[in-house]
Amino acid sequence: MATMRAVEVSSPKGPFQLVERSIPEPGVGAVRVKVEACGICHSDVMTKEGLFPGIQYPRIPGHEIAGRVDALGSGVTGWSVGDRVGIGWHGGHCGYCDSCRRGDFVTCQIAPQIPGITYDGGYAEYMMAPAVALARIPDDVSAVDAAPLMCAGITTFNALRHSGARAGDLVAVLGIGGLGHLGIQYAAKMGFTTVAIARGQDKAPLARKLGAHHYIDSQSTDPAAALTKLGGATTILATVTNAAAMQAVIGGLRINGKLIILGAANEPVAVTPLAMIGRRISISGWPSGSSIDSQDTLAFSATSGIRSMNEVYPLAKAPEAYERMMSGKARFRVVLTTQ
Ligand SMILES: NC(=O)c1ccc[n+]([C@@H]2O[C@H](COP(=O)([O-])OP(=O)(O)OC[C@H]3O[C@@H](n4cnc5c(N)ncnc54)[C@H](OP(=O)(O)O)[C@@H]3O)[C@@H](O)[C@H]2O)c1
Ligand SMILES: [Zn+2]
């Protein structure tokens, strides 16, 4: 039987292990994808540390996948072997729950499918995915460039395009990591007056290069006061992993302003009802998007010249690559390649 290399987590909090696995055969409605690149998202911590309920181990992480269709399962139409495809966090849905019947596949409540969580993901040479999870990659976007757009890209792009902010509004991106550095580019290209907020001064020049019109160092200044001085933010996109950092910017929202939480912190964000009422502010969360949202993200990124800044590692060095992401030192996305 033909085999492939894959990197799996054998148990919650266990080490990554490079293993040989048999190459999977696609079932009904699924395709086999030859993985070319897979981004390492901070959410991979959920598989590594066993933080997502019900994960079955061993599990191959990875939900920022770019590759080519390698084989079609029965019943798959519209895709051909060799097509360039991406797969993100939203890796399939039940199709019959109330959310799915409304076309809101991302909030599928019965059988949400997530590569790297509910089925094996992209830290491998091949993987299986339902055909409904595929997004088409434009010719001029390489696999390494496409991979991070499948989670870090779509999540920030989709949250911003649904934020209600209009061209010229002040939009702040809190945190400049994998998500944040793409969020800055999308916000600037969407025509918002874009503010980047991060800890320390070292990211300031890069933030400006990515399109930020203003930079706030949250360590040397109170970020809420600094935003207020700029007129107050219509939208703050919180990409940080830390709830206290989100809490610290809420006072910088203008009237009707909205904090959109993307960072998967597990602690509470405290806010007084009085502060919310007086300025009619709101706090909401946003989960990635569907495969067509991924395709929109790829197309917008291609036409607007938006790219992830990547540090590339070979698949076998996944443990080192993951540590690099966790260190916060990567500028800004770590991507594995199978070549
Ligand atoms: N909602 C969704 O659908 C979705 C999708 C993907 C990821 N996520 C989540 O989004 C978050 C970011 O993911 P990522 O891949 O961009 O991670 P990343 O590249 O590791 O970046 C982490 C970010 O968190 C900030 N940070 C870390 N520790 C902090 C602290 N103690 N105080 C303040 N800020 C801190 C860093 O801020 P500085 O820039 O100041 O260093 C950096 O911007 C994760 O929680 C991830 O699970 C959510
Ligand atoms: Zn992710």
Q: Can you put this structure into words, describing what you see?
A:
The protein has helices spanning 45-49, 98-101, 143-146, 152-161, 178-189, 204-209, 223-229, 243-247, 273-278, 291-304, 318-327, and strands at residues 3-9, 16-22, 30-40, 65-72, 84-87, 126-130, 135-136, 170-174, 193-198, 214-217, 233-238, 253-261, 282-285, 310-314, 333-337. By secondary structure, the protein is α/β, with parallel strands linked by helices. It has two domains: 3-150 and 288-337, Medium-chain alcohol dehydrogenases, catalytic domain (Quinone Oxidoreductase, Chain A, domain 1), CATH 3.90.180; 154-285, NAD(P)-binding Rossmann-like Domain (Rossmann fold, 3-Layer(aba) Sandwich), CATH 3.40.50. Helix 9 links the parallel strand 12 (253-261) and strand 13. Helix 4 (152-161) packs parallel to helix 5 (178-189) and helix 4 crosses helix 10. It is globular. Bound molecules: NADP nicotinamide-adenine-dinucleotide phosphate and zinc ion.
Q: How can the largest sheet be summarized?
A: 7 strands, mixed
Indicate the percent of residues in helices.
10-25%
- CATH fold-level assignment of the largest domain: Quinone Oxidoreductase, Chain A, domain 1
Question: What is the straight-line distance between the termini?
Answer: 21 Å
The helix-and-strand class reads: alpha/beta
CATH superfamily of the largest domain: Medium-chain alcohol dehydrogenases, catalytic domain
Number of helices: 11
Averaged pLDDT, please? Answer: 97
CATH-derived architecture of the largest domain = Alpha-Beta Complex
CATH class of the largest domain: Alpha Beta
How many separate domains? 2
Strand content: 25-35%
Write down the overall geometry. Answer: globular
Question: Radius of gyration in whole Å, from Cα?
Answer: 20 Å
